[in-house]
Design brief:
Keywords: DNA-binding, Transcription, Transcription regulation. By secondary structure, the chain is mostly helical. The chain is built from eleven helices and two strands, in the order H-H-H-E-E-H-H-H-H-H-H-H-H.
Length: 227
């Protein structure tokens, strides 16, 4: 582990231990470097790295502060990395969604207010039976965002919003090229809403798995055919 890594770990531990809390200002650079037994250069590199992933906020002329550490803020750094994806990485993103999103859907079946579930049904009804691919993809993103939020777990919701948005291109491609993709997606969404309405977490999670796995399998086959 490098000296900079040591500095990053030391600051992280101060936050984990509660010594530094969201919104707190870090001690003066000289004081903190002496306390941690680090050079000021190593400390600066650590602060720069932690500011890039939005753990710290460097304010010129004011000091360095711990950010709010809200999940959505921290996930922004992840979205920066995920943006530089290739098609095979999209497969990995879909695989991650297939593993995580059913859990969020199960939680939503227990925790999501009935009014919000009814609003999901209205979102689908507003599309009609023959939406354009762009309309479907936009609705699809909102559909999954609402369910993730309905899980009541802010970390899950932020993670899934980051992952879901990065598969938009694949969803559009599927809608344009796979026969029956629009109808299949609408049918699967309605089935998920029905399970949520009936408060059936196991069924809702299973339906979410099948739904995401369908996109994943289609992309795997499309990439093989394109080789």
């Amino acid at each position: 582990m490098s000296v900079t890594d040591d500095a990053i770990e030391a600051i992280k531990q101060m936050i984990v231990d509660g010594e530094l809390r969201p919104g707190d200002r870090l001690p003066r650079e000289l004081d903190l470097a002496e306390r941690l037994g680090l050079s000021r250069n190593s400390l600066r590199e650590a602060v720069r790295a932690l500011s890039l992933i939005q753990v710290l906020d460097v304010r010129r002329g004011d000091g360095t502060y711990v950010t709010s550490l809200e999940p959505a803020l921290l996930m922004d750094a992840m979205s920066f990395v995920v943006d530089f994806h290739r098609d095979d990485t999209v497969l990995q993103i879909l695989e991650a969604r297939r593993l995580v999103e059913p859990a969020a859907t199960e939680l939503a079946a227990v925790r999501m207010p009935m009014a919000d579930i009814e609003a999901l049904a209205e979102l689908l009804d507003a599309l009609g039976d023959s939406p354009t691919v762009d309309e479907l993809v936009e609705s699809d993103l909102e559909f999954h965002r609402r369910i993730a939020a309905g899980s009541g777990n802010a970390v899950l919701a932020s993670l899934l919003e980051t992952l879901s948005g990065r598969t938009q291109r694949a969803r559009t491609w599927r809608g344009l090229t796979q026969e029956g993709a629009v109808e299949r997606t609408l049918g699967e969404h309605r089935a998920i809403v029905q399970a949520l309405t009936r408060r059936q977490p196991g069924i809702a999670g299973a339906l979410a798995t099948v739904h995401i796995a369908g996109v994943e399998q289609w992309l795997r086959e499309a990439l093989v055919d394109g080789d």
